[in-house]
Design brief:
By secondary structure, the chain is an alpha/beta fold. Helices cover 28% and strands 26% of the residues. The strands form four sheets. The protein has an eight-stranded mixed beta sheet with strand order 7-8-6-16-17-18-15-19, with helices on both faces. Strands 10-3-2-14-21-20 form a six-stranded mixed beta sheet. A four-stranded mixed beta sheet has the order 1-13-12-11, with no helix packed on it. Strand 11 and strand 12 form a beta hairpin. Helix 1 runs parallel beside helix 7 and helix 1 packs across helix 10. The radius of gyration is 21 Å and the shape is globular. It starts with a strand and ends in an 11-residue tail after the last helix. The N terminus is likely disordered. Bound molecules: flavin-adenine dinucleotide. The site of flavin-adenine dinucleotide has 41 residues, from helix 1, strand 3, helix 2, strand 15 and strand 19.
Length: 390
């Protein structure tokens, strides 16, 4: 059996795995880095199927800091990747609506977000109506938006940039399935691939997104990350798109401009949100039963809409607390997690990549302290609750 030399082995080569590889080189890590990716077309990856948006409106300080770095990373792409680097970033605030009884909590969340450096603005319904005349503000008590650091972009272009920069710096991408981790004592020593190769590993990073629990199940590690289906509908509607935000209604429905139309979605109810392994069939009933009624109530112009297409991707839901799981396993110290982002993994990929690279290269976080997202809270079942979940 062939045994390749490998210092860092990253399982999963989409946005999180590629950011880890890219930032390892940026941190001056000179050892071999191998990224194992089972599907170089990325057609079922969360990265390729996402809504590719970034927000700073979170209930947890560490998430805000990660988003702020994500926004800076996106704004300074040309400095890192050259003058032709462009991911079509539309920098525009989310508009997050709050229903009855939410104003005090939303104002205090906004104060915390401002203190963290996010540029949040609180709007009363009358101000909302002035800015966005097409909105029906019935049942809305408050809304928040951001002056900068929020918006949307093209995730595929971002992945392509980061991945080719990593490759240019000698990171090798291997097309194979990572089947097992080989552990000796309390260390991962290798990753066994579907083609029989064993990649020797001094560090192993689990960036396998919705499949990351499966990667470690064989070691008896129960990682609370589960693939959950989210359907996105691409629509056309008679509605002005200029200045249209990424709108999150208090019903849970969301909509934003995309191309010549809009994309929109809504999470299924909890009792209709099973493990979706292998299921990428769009849930068309969601549109009729939940999404369209909610959108048409909030934006009367959406009573007329035309669905152009729909697709479904998987959130890698951390069922403990909807937050990323980043950092070393508590017993196997060279097994690093970078997963569980539950719908915000693209915006947090740059901060995750940089943090994991710092951890591997220097032993500690140098920039943002990501330890609140560490594995030990999973072990202790001590949730770090994120209140702003979509
Ligand atoms: C509909 C939808 C909308 C979303 N909207 C947003 C948004 O607006 N903003 C945002 O920040 N996030 C959003 N997300 C979440 C975001 O897409 C994910 O958090 C992010 O893409 C996770 O990136 P990843 O690289 O960890 O996972 P993935 O992109 O899923 O990549 C994991 C990779 O690992 C590979 N892999 C898995 N198992 C193995 C194995 N055993 N061997 C080798 N390779 C393996 C897979 O092929 C895959 O390419 C959304 C997700 C969905 C589904």
């Amino acid at each position: 059996m062939a045994v390749s030399a490998g210092a860092v082995v990253i399982i999963g080569g989409a946005i999180v795995g590629s950011c880890v590889a890219y930032f390892l080189r940026a941190a001056g890590f000179s050892g071999p880095i191998t990224v194992v990716e089972r599907d170089p077309s990325y057609q079922y990856s969360s990265t390729a199927l996402s809504a590719a948006s970034i927000r700073t409106q979170f209930g947890t300080p560490v998430n805000i800091r990660m988003s702020l770095f994500g926004a800076e990373f996106i704004r300074t792409l040309k400095e890192r990747f050259g003058p032709s680097a462009d991911i079509g970033f539309v920098e525009r605030g989310y508009l997050i609506l709050g229903g009855p009884g939410t104003e005090a909590q939303r104002r205090s969340a906004a104060a915390m977000q401002l203190a963290e450096g996010a540029e949040i603005v609180v709007l009363a319904p009358s101000e909302m109506k002035t800015r966005y005349p097409w909105i029906n503000v019935d049942g809305v008590e408050v809304a928040t938006t951001a002056r900068r650091n929020e918006g949307w972009f093209d995730a595929w272009s971002l992945l392509s940039l980061v991945r080719s920069a990593a490759r240019d710096q000698g990171v090798s991408y291997v097309h194979a399935v990572a089947n097992d981790l080989m552990v000796t004592g309390a260390k991962v020593t290798g990753v066994r691939l579907s083609n029989g190769t064993i990649l020797a590993a001094d560090w192993c990073v689990n960036a396998a997104g919705p499949s990351s629990a499966r990667i470690v199940a064989g070691l008896g590690i129960s990682l609370p990350v589960s693939p959950r289906k989210r359907t996105v509908f691409s629509i056309r509607a008679p509605l002005e798109r200029t200045n249209f935000p990424m709108l999150f209604d208090n019903s849970g429905a969301w909509i934003r401009p995309e191309g010549a139309g809009f994309i929109c979605g809504i999470a299924p109810t909890e009792d209709n949100d099973p493990d979706a392994t292998g299921d990428f069939e769009p849930d068309h009933a969601l549109l009729e039963n939940a999404l369209w009624p909610a959108l048409a109530h909030r934006i009367p112009a959406l009573e007329q809409l035309r669905v152009e297409r729909a697709w479904a991707g998987h959130y890698e839901v951390n069922t403990l607390d909807h937050n990323g799981i980043i950092g070393a396993h508590d017993e196997i110290s060279n097994l690093i997690f970078a997963t569980g982002f539950s719908g915000h993994g693209i915006m947090h990929a740059p901060a995750t990549g940089r943090g994991v690279a710092e951890l591997i290269a220097t032993g500690i976080y140098q920039s943002i302290d990501l330890s609140p997202l560490g594995f030990d809270r999973i072990r202790r079942s001590q949730a770090l609750h994120e209140t702003v979940v979509y």
